[in-house]
Every structure is written in C-alpha cells, then in structure tokens.
C-alpha cells in the first residue's frame, strides 16, 4: 500500500514556522505583516475559503483584513478598493477571491494589484517571472505541491513528472516549478491522446483537472508519487456530500509509492502557502532577509 502524504500535518508545521517568522518580524523589525482578502458576492464555497484564510492569518499573528462586497459591486469600485490597499503600508498582501461575478474583468482586477503584494502569484508580471525562473510570488497550491513532493522524495532532479491539467492557477505554474526542480515535465490535458499511457510514464503525477476520480489505478507506474489537487464535491448517501479527488484513491493507493489523500492532502497546503507568501512579501517590502525555515 502507498504511503499517505499527510498534507494536513505538513501545513500545520508550516503555519507554525510562519508564526515564528511573524513573531520575529514584530519583535526585531516592528513589522506586523497584513493580509487583505477581498470577496465579491455570496458564493458559499468562496465564503468558507475566505473565512478560513482570515482565521488562519490572525492565528499566525498577522493582521487580517476582510472586505466583503455585494455581488453587484461595479468593476470601478473594486479597482478603487484595490488601489487603496495597494497604497496602504499596513497591507503587505492582497488576495481577491476568485471567481469574480461575470460583469467584472478578472484579469484587469488581478493586474491592478501591486505586483509586490500579489500573494496569489496571479499578476502577469509574477507569472512571467516564474516562467523565466526569477524570484517571484509563487501561486499557493502549486507551491504546496512542490513542498510536499520535496519533503517526501528529497531531490526531484531527473524525475519524469506528468501534470494533468493546464489551468493558470495550478497546471501551468506547477509545471514551471517542477521544471525549476529539474524534472522532465509533460503537461497533459483533455485533448491529450492516450492519456493513460502518458500517465504511466510518470514518476510524479500531479492531477489538477477537476474531474472526479479520472485517474485510475492502471494509469499509474508502480511506486510513483501521486499529488491529487482535485477537490470535487459529490453526492453521498443520506443526501450528504463528500469530497473526492481527481484520482481514484482506492485503486491508486494499491499501485503508487505515495499519494496525497482528499481531503487532507494538498488542500490544507494552499492557505499555509498563502500565509508564507504574505510574510515573504512583507520582508521584501521592508528590505528584510526572508527568515530561514520559510
Ligand atoms: N479560488 C479558488 N482558488 C483560488 C486561489 O488560489 N486564489 C484565489 N484568489 N481565488 C481562488
């Protein structure tokens, strides 16, 4: 049976390192990092994420500011708020929860965020920096995937990595990060021919497509490391719902060397990496060396 990669435990350790860094920044530099999270509209899943982000930000000793705007908010008003946060010295990180309502231009909003405060790593300049291998603010979920992989495997050099999914939030950035770790990277997607055969070549398989249990046991090379980024809510017995990944866990765990569960794998790493990015952003804005251990 595959080793279970415990993202929940790793995320807790990372949060504690973030809290140590925050306490050092406050004590030695009189800098209390601040994160502003902006939510437009009432999407229930987004509300849960935003609440958790705020709670964990405060728990690590940082300043947490939430802006909840009605769904009818105009693009102009949202851009004005971002401008205000860009110029607020107490705010080091800005996150606009996606998706935004249809009448708002998502990329315009993202690219209005001060690039140094873009803790999501979605600003076009941060995307560009990541693609040419220059230090940038790196998207949180992909950063979390790499931390788990390195923790489990150590050096990733020379591994065949297959990423299933080509989204801007996960597939593309995680591919860039795997390349930076000297993996041989294949990006597969819905139009890839013979996807099972492509997956079978993977020493590292990252599934980020949003299709419940797409990846089957016989798509997996024996001993491979599986990172399941999927979070799919499905109907369960008794009218309840439950979360499943993009990988058929029962089948995959019989073949793989190691696998992240859903929930409790990659999911908890996203917010932990957001907190880490906020501290990194605060350090850079104040010309402070990024604390060891982050
Ligand atoms: N919605 C789903 N995932 C994300 C994320 O990583 N960042 C933001 N801002 N919104 C999201």
How would you explain this protein's 3D organization?
The chain has 294 residues and is an alpha/beta fold. The protein folds into two domains: 91 residues, 3-Layer(aba) Sandwich (Rossmann fold); 128 residues, Rossmann fold (3-Layer(aba) Sandwich), CATH 3.40.50.720. It is built from ten helices and eleven strands. The strands form three sheets. Strands 1-11-8-7-5-6 form a six-stranded parallel sheet, with helices on both faces. The radius of gyration is 19 Å and the shape is globular. The model has no long low-confidence stretch (mean pLDDT 98). The site of guanine has 8 residues, from strand 4 and helix 6.
Looking at this protein, list some descriptive labels.
binds guanine; three-stranded parallel sheet; 294 residues; alpha/beta; Rossmann fold; 42% helix; 2 domains; six-stranded parallel sheet; globular
The whole-number mean of residue pLDDT values reads 98
Domain count? 2
Q: What's the overall geometry?
A: globular
Widest beta sheet: strand line-up? 1-11-8-7-5-6
CATH architecture of the largest domain: 3-Layer(aba) Sandwich
Bound ligands: guanine
Q: Any idea what the radius of gyration is? A: 19 Å
